[in-house]
Design a protein that fits this description.
The two termini are 29 Å apart. Strand 5 and strand 6 form a beta hairpin. 55% of the residues lie in helices and 7% in strands. It has 13 helices and seven strands. By secondary structure, it is α+β, with helices and mostly antiparallel strands.
């Protein structure tokens, strides 16, 4: 299978168009409430950053936004104040809901004696909600379309620094969703012959999960195509180390085959300029793509400015 894919590289180098993904992750300015909960928690109301009185209040807001249905008060009390006496826990919930109304606006919540929910008609921009919706649409599409997903929405794990049980579950679910998106994107770019994007996406995957073997395989394949034996050697060693430390397993046969292929001598001797950067002569698909060649060189050479 590896030989067949490598045999098709020349075809993709000639036929594959340049793929450019434009990030458009900035929230719209016309939203009344901007909620950033991927990474560091931030909240803006009418363009102004505000602080909520307690972390529990912040967590309650995020929960109501992520789960916009009606919630029985008893469930919220159990989820957020399960270790408190019933009367005190009920009072804590009332205090938190009141604090949210005061900080955000009286109409942000719909609540009565028995239930509470975030107002579905309230103007809201929430990064976690938008990312989850985009990711699901991207994964369910019949063909991979990078324009459907804004990776910059995922600035970090959900509510970084919070450790409630429900947050840990939601955090892991979003991490796995993000990982699935990245894996599908990496395969898409590799199939299209866009090795710059493949390398960038594979590195994103390994930042999230150093033992994700598929990402190592993508990088090894890219280094075969670009003729960088040294980079392939380093990548394989990193793969072996991560798999042993994280999972106590050895690399899969496909990974070993890719590594062995990467260490075979090149059939064509690179020109002096290409040899200096460990890159072969420019490939057909890179004609007229000077910026991508420079970016690829920076990635392979480990230039910090490239974001590696």
């Amino acid at each position: 299978m590896i030989a067949n894919e490598l045999g098709q590289v020349r075809q993709f180098q000639v036929m594959a168009p340049c793929h450019v993904y434009i990030i458009c992750g900035d929230p719209p300015m016309d939203k009344q409430l901007l909620l950033r909960c991927l990474g560091q928690f931030e909240i803006e109301v009418n363009g102004q950053f505000i602080a909520l009185p307690t972390r529990k209040t912040a967590a309650l807001l995020v929960y109501l936004v992520l789960h916009p249905q009606t919630h029985p008060r008893e469930r919220l009390v159990t989820l957020f104040w399960g270790d408190a006496v019933d009367e005190k826990a009920q009072r804590s919930l009332r205090t938190a809901l009141s604090a949210l109304r005061k900080a955000i606006g009286e109409t942000c919540l719909l609540a009565d004696r028995d239930t509470a929910q975030f107002n579905p008609t309230y103007l809201l921009w929430a990064d976690a909600v938008i990312f989850r919706r985009q990711a699901q649409r991207f994964l369910e599409a019949p063909t991979s379309d990078p324009s459907l997903i804004d990776l910059d929405l995922y600035r970090g794990d959900l509510l970084d620094g919070f450790y409630d049980d429900w947050i840990l579950r939601e955090r892991e679910a979003l991490r796995q969703l993000y990982l699935r998106v990245l894996l599908q994107l990496a395969q898409h770019w590799r199939t299209q012959g866009d090795y710059v994007q493949t390398i960038e996406t594979a590195h994103r995957i390994l930042c999230l999960d150093p033992a994700e073997e598929t990402a190592h395989q993508h990088l090894l394949f890219c280094y075969i195509v670009t003729g960088d034996r040294a980079a392939a050697q380093r990548q394989y060693e990193a793969c072996v180390r991560a798999l042993r430390e994280e999972l106590d397993v050895e690399p899969a046969p496909e990974t070993v085959a890719l590594y062995r292929r990467s260490q075979q001598p090149q059939r064509r001797k690179p020109a002096s300029a290409a040899a200096h950067s460990n890159l072969p002569l420019p490939l057909a698909s890179f004609i007229g793509r000077g910026q991508e060649i420079a970016k690829l060189k920076a990635l392979l050479l480990g230039d910090p400015a490239s974001g590696e």
